[in-house]
Design brief:
This protein is 50% helix and 0% strand. 0% of the residues are buried.
């Protein structure tokens, strides 16, 4: 026994879609059946889902392992300075500030 699938869309979208299907010689029922066949076999949509990344568990584990393997950045010469000290240090390094200059 066949079942019926119902979907809501604008009349304009339905007409435009039916026009394309007719031009390529595919009925709406055949198109929907092929979509469901793909979903059942591949366990995903045949097109990108906007806003959702299609990552599998293995890819995520590999990415996490890579991130976990990164060494934490060691403190640099600026890590113990406040903003003003960093500014003075950078100006001096560029030769734009001399010891006789007042800030």
């Amino acid at each position: 026994m066949d079942a019926m699938v119902t979907a809501r869309m604008s009349q304009a979208k339905k007409e435009a879609g039916n026009s394309v299907l007719e031009a390529i010689g595919v009925s709406p029922s055949k198109a929907i059946n092929e979509l469901y066949d793909y979903l059942i076999k591949q366990k995903k949509l045949p097109f990108a889902q906007e806003g959702k990344a299609a990552y599998d568990r293995k890819s995520l584990q590999e990415a996490l392992s890579w991130v976990d393997g990164l060494a934490l950045a060691a403190g640099n010469r600026f890590s113990s300075m406040d903003d003003e000290e960093i500014r003075v240090e950078r100006l001096a390094a560029r030769g734009l500030l001399h010891s006789s200059d007042q800030l």
